[in-house]
Design brief:
This protein has 314 residues and is α+β, with helices and mostly antiparallel strands. Helices cover 58% and strands 17% of the residues. The chain has two domains: 4-164, Yope Regulator, Chain: A (2-Layer Sandwich); 168-303, no CATH class. It binds zinc ion.
Length: 314
């Protein structure tokens, strides 16, 4: 998506707006601009050598540079660099200043800009036919003959990524194990009488970490899997906590305690116990879900760019 601020700037600089992005050459570099959640994204296509990548990375790791251009994060690849600019009041002014500065800075550090093919690294002569391809949200100018190979490379990457995605089973296992671990903490807290609903957030956190640690991949199913595992962990935690309490209070066996637990649920005399159980579970689950979503939001940013997509723009 391109909102008004970027659109006006695109018009001013003669950039094209299509496919939810603005792209074109600024200061000798192919630049792609787009909106994100609370950020604006600036991608600059350019061939980086190890040396230039090191210098540019060093510069943008300094607090001064980050602050001046509101760089929330950046990622550098062989084919270009992506900046996420924190979007608050006056962002367009910052972006304008940044794009005044950036092309010269990249040139000084030996980054090859527009005029060099991103696919093969050779110069694109005036007589050469060239194309602009959109790869993973970044526009690149390449030789006509190179566009095929570059897109193929990107598609192979994507295919590889998609086969990795199929590995959902491990992710499910990881999420459940993580949630159960969090559930045990919940159970202990419940048992010793130090239960706070915020412990639920730990379940959500561990479910996400479990999913990711065991190699569950980024896909649409990730969120529902983690949320279900989280709820499961919360119910498990509270159930174990209550059963343990019953075991100790009534000095009975585990099996008897489990039966008693279900018995209490049916006995109107223990309505207070049931309502207490429900309130704690509801509050804890709420925190668990919020915790999971919080971590997911944070990691989804890191995983963005994992899925490649290609398209010929011109
Ligand atoms: Zn080429």
């Amino acid at each position: 998506m391109v909102a008004k601020g970027l659109k006006d700037y695109a018009n001013e600089k003669g950039l094209k707006v299509s496919d939810g992005i603005a792209y074109g050459v600024i200061g000798g570099y192919m630049v792609t601009l787009k909106e994100g959640y609370g950020i604006k994204e600036i991608s600059v296509s350019g061939a980086f050598t190890d040396e230039s990548a090191r210098k540019v990375t060093e510069f943008f790791q300094t607090q001064g540079a980050k602050k001046e251009y509101r760089v929330a994060s950046f990622s550098l690849m062989r084919e270009g660099i992506i900046f996420e600019i924190t979007d608050t009041i006056g962002t367009m002014k910052v972006i304008k200043a940044f794009l005044e500065f950036l092309p010269n800075f990249l040139r000084q550090n030996g980054v090859l800009g527009d005029g060099f093919c991103t696919a093969c690294g050779n110069q694109i002569e005036a007589a050469d036919a060239s194309r602009i391809v959109l790869i993973n949200g970044m526009a690149h100018r390449v030789h006509d003959g190179c566009s095929g190979s570059l897109m193929e490379r990107a598609n192979v990457e994507q295919a590889r990524h998609e086969t990795e995605e199929k590995n959902l089973g491990k992710g499910v296992l990881g999420a459940v194990l993580g949630a159960l671990l969090g559930g045990l903490v919940w159970a202990v807290a419940y048992y010793i009488g130090y239960f706070f609903a915020i412990i639920g957030a730990l379940i959500g956190f561990l479910a996400v970490k479990g999913y990711e640690k065991l190699g569950g991949k980024v896909c649409k199913a990730k969120m529902p899997i983690i949320l279900i595992a989280t709820l499961f962990g919360a119910i498990f935690g509270q159930f174990v906590g209550d059963v343990a309490t019953i075991m100790v209070a009534w000095e009975c066996s585990l099996v008897d305690a489990i039966f008693s637990f279900f018995y209490l649920f049916q006995d109107p005399e223990y309505a207070d116990f049931v309502s207490g159980f429900c309130v704690d579970l509801a509050l804890g689950s709420l925190f668990a879900i919020l915790g999971a979503i919080g971590v997911l939001k944070k990691t989804s940013k890191e995983n963005k760019g994992a899925a490649l997509s290609t398209k010929i723009l011109e």
